[in-house]
Design goal:
Layout: H1 3-14, H2 23-46, H3 50-65, H4 67-71, H5 77-101, H6 106-128, H7 139-166, H8 170-190, H9 195-218, H10 229-255, H11 268-304, H12 322-336, H13 340-356, H14 358-361, H15 366-383, H16 390-408
Helix pairs in contact: 2-3, 2-5, 2-9, 2-10, 2-11, 3-5, 5-7, 6-7, 7-9, 8-9, 9-10, 10-11, 12-13, 12-16, 13-15, 15-16
Length: 410
């Protein structure tokens, strides 16, 4: 076989390393964003690994997973989307590390990641002469591709959080805003805008859209969400992802990548129907389960009798934070009894509840949220120290409870 023929076959094999950009691609991309963010939070808070161990663990898993697509010779859907989910997790963690651990402002981190993405694109273009993902036909281009994706997730996280926090959008308005921006990007493409530019803009925007959509489903109904919780929402999203990726894998195995989205077996109309069915399934599940959750809460409230109305202090827009006060007071009682192990176990309830309510509370009053967040961190740090000091724990809890009482006006 001639050398030129071998080279052409090799490049054709590499052309199959990324999926066709169809409706199912965008649906899976948005859903994988939420799965990635939820899973990282679950490991860090619910499992109790903490940010540092979670970051190291997920970086290690991502590094191992990226060897799979780099070692294969054609697009394999389950490998590709596994890597996208892991990149979503790590990209989010990078931004959270800068913001939460190092205290870097979202303005600065958004600027830094924008510059970094521009640098990746510049080097990529100078080396290869193109940024189109349809031209990922060499190992080096695939390396640039995954590097760009990682930075887009970090940038999308920072820019999304900045817009939500600085503009006090909340997740409901976030879904509308970022969804509208993606629609405008799609319209611009239809009107003749550059396909490469519009693709990468939309790719960045899907990160905050997915996060806002996930928050809309997971957040408590008192915060404006549907109250499904992170576990149930993740299960719904993961089910839809598995179904769509399985279909992708079957199409690739049976007919090859070339017909995916184009040929009679995987045409664009059929692809659009599958994507629409996946989105509809999430919508229906969210509305039905959300209604069931609301009915259950109403029945519980009716059985408990009339509740006292909490007067919210006028200096904050956070709303009712009495549930955090209740948990903190319980922890304080255990500290006062010098039962620090029990207090340490109980304080996890405070951490989980506070972390779960972040998306609903933070946009209401970012300054007061940060105040409480710092005080809760102080409580967690003092109780989880190698040799916790009762006086330090008690002092931090008193400060936190005083602030919570001030904000609630009780």
């Amino acid at each position: 076989m001639a050398v030129a023929e071998k080279t052409r076959m090799s490049r054709q094999e590499w052309l199959t390393k990324v999926p066709a950009i169809t409706a199912t691609f965008w649906v899976i991309k948005v859903l994988s964003t939420t799965i990635g963010e939820t899973f990282a939070d679950y490991l860090s808070v619910n499992v109790g690994l903490g940010p540092a161990i979670t970051d190291i663990a997920m970086l290690t898993v991502l590094a191992a997973a990226l060897t799979l697509p780099l070692r294969t010779h054609r697009y394999t859907p389950w490998i590709y989307w596994l890597c996208v989910v892991l990149v979503s997790i790590v990209g989010t963690q990078i931004t959270d590390f800068f913001t939460d651990t190092l205290g870097v402002s979202l303005y600065l981190s958004t600027g830094v990641f924008s510059i970094l993405l521009a640098a990746v694109f510049t080097i990529w273009y100078r080396q290869e002469g193109t940024l189109a993902i349809t031209s990922i036909d060499t190992p080096r281009r695939e390396g640039f591709y995954w590097a760009a994706i990682l930075v887009t997730f970090a940038l999308g996280t920072a820019a999304g959080d900045l817009a939500t926090e600085a503009l006090s959008l909340g997740f409901r308005n976030g879904v509308f805003l970022f969804g509208s921006l993606i629609a405008v990007t799609w319209l611009a493409r239809r009107l003749g805008a550059n396909s490469v530019v519009t693709f990468w803009i939309a790719y960045i925007l899907t990160r905050p859209l997915g996060a806002s959509l996930g928050d809309l489903l997971t957040q408590d109904q008192s915060l404006g969400g549907l109250g499904l919780g992170a576990s149930l929402t993740s299960a719904i999203f993961l089910t839809v992802i598995v179904v769509l990726v399985t279909r992708e894998q079957l199409l690739v195995n049976r007919h090859g990548v070339a017909v995916k989205g184009e040929g009679p077996h995987g045409g664009r109309r059929r692809d659009l129907a599958w994507a629409g069915a996946g989105a509809a399934a999430i919508l229906v599940a969210g509305l039905v389960l959300g209604s069931l959750q609301a009915a259950a809460l109403q029945n519980t409230a009716a059985a408990a009798g009339p509740a006292n109305t909490v007067q919210v202090h006028p200096t904050t827009a956070l709303g009712d934070v009495s549930n955090f006060t209740t948990i903190a007071t319980d922890v304080q009682a255990k500290v006062s009894a010098n039962d620090l192990p029990a207090a340490t176990a109980k304080v996890k309830d405070l951490e989980v509840a506070w972390d779960g309510a972040e998306a609903g509370l933070k946009p209401r009053d970012p300054a007061d949220w940060h105040t409480l967040d710092g005080q809760i961190d102080d409580v967690l740090t003092s109780l989880r120290a190698g040799s916790p000091n009762q006086a330090d724990c008690a002092a931090n809890l008193t400060t936190l409870i005083d602030t919570l009482n001030t904000y609630d006006g009780v």
